Amino acid sequence: MKIHEFQGKQLFRQAGVPVLDGFVARTADEAAAAYNKLGGSIAVVKAQIHAGGRGKGTVIDNPSQRGVVLVKSADEARAAAAALLNKKLVTIQTGPQGSTVKRVFIEAGCDIARELYLGIVIDRATCLPVLMASTEGGVEIESVAEKTPELIFKEYFDPAYGFYGYQVRKLCKRLGISGDAAKSANKFFTSICRFFVDYDCSMAEINPLVITGDGKMVALDAKITFDDNALFRHKELLELRDWSEEEPSEVRASDAGLSYVKLEGNIGCLVNGAGLAMSTMDIIKYHGGQPANFLDVGGGANAQQVTEAFRILLSDPNCKGVLVNIFGGIARCTTIAAALIEASKTVGFTVPLVVRLEGTEVEEGRKMLAESDVNIISATDINDAAKKIVAAVK
Predict the structure, then answer these.
(1) Which of the residues 117, 136, 308, 358 is marked catalytic?
(2) What residues bind ATP, as annotated (predicted)?
(3) Which of 43, 62, 135, 168 is the most buried (most CB within 10 A)?
(4) Quick one: 117 and 220 in the same domain?
C-alpha cells in the first residue's frame, strides 16, 4: 500500500525523523492560506500523487508546468496550485497517461547545503533490509543506478537490532559528511531504519534528503510503501489509503481475493499460482505476444472468483484474447473446468479463449470442457498454449 508524501511526513514526524512544516491544500485559495500560515519568505508547492520524479514531471496540457514549484508569495502559491490541481502530471514513473493531481502540499523552505538520496528496501537475496544512500540526491535514482551504480552505497541491517553506529560512520565517510551533519546523520539513519521495521515497510525513499546550512539532516521527501500482508498489524494505516490513486481493476480484483496487476499488452492471463503466472507471461513474450495482466486466482479458486476474474479481464478494452493456464494441485482441474463453464454462462466469452489444464483430475476436467458448449481452444502444454493464444490474437 502506498501513501502520499504529506502522509509519510506525518508518520516521519511521529517517529522522530526530521521534516519541515507544511500544509495540504485542495484548492488554490487553501494553498495561498497555507503559505501565509508557514510565515516564511519562501515555500514549495508539491503535487501529491503516488509517483516519484515530480520535480521534473510536467502537466500534460502545460509542459512548462512542473510538479514541484518554488514560490515566494501567497499569490505565487495560489497560481502554482491552480496550475497543478485537477491536472494530469506525467513523471518518469506514471507513464505517458499521467496521474491526476487532487491535492498539493505546501512546505516551508529551508537553507539547503547538500542534497543526498536515501532509500530502504528488502533485499530478497540476503533476506535483510538494506539502506541505500548516494551523493546524487534530487535526480532520478534509476538513472544513477544505470549509469553510475558505484555512487550508490549500501548497508544491510538486522531488523531486530537496527542500524549500528559503525554503519552510520561508514556511510558518513562515503558520503563526505562530517561535523554537526554527522551527528545529525546518526539520529536520522537510526530513526528511519527503525521506522521501516516498525511499520513493516517494503520501501521507504527520501529524494532528496538534505543537509541544511546549520548541519541538520532533513527529509525533503517521503515515498513509502507498506507490505499489504502486514497491514493487519497496522489498521490505523488503512485510513491513509487513497483509492483514487489505484487502478480500479486492481482494487476490484483485491476485493474478490484475486492478485491482479494491469499491464499494457493484449493477452489476458488467468493462472493459479504466482510463479506459474510469471512463467506464463514470460512464455507469451517469448512467442511474440504481450500479456495484458498478471492474474493469480490462487489455489482455492471457485466459480465466483473465476467469473469475476473474467469480468475484470474482459473489461479491459485492450484484451483481445485470454489464456487460462491451470495446474491443478490444491484446486482440482474439474473444479476449474466447472468454474470456466459457469463463467461462460454468466459473462460470455467474446474473445479467443485458450485453455491449458494439467494436474489432479486433468482428464476429467478436459472431458468436461470438451462436452460443454464453451468455445475454447485446447492446449496440451504451456508452449502450445502460448503459441495458440498469440496466433489467435494476431
Answers:
(1) 117
(2) 46, 53-55, 107, 110, 115
(3) 43
(4) yes
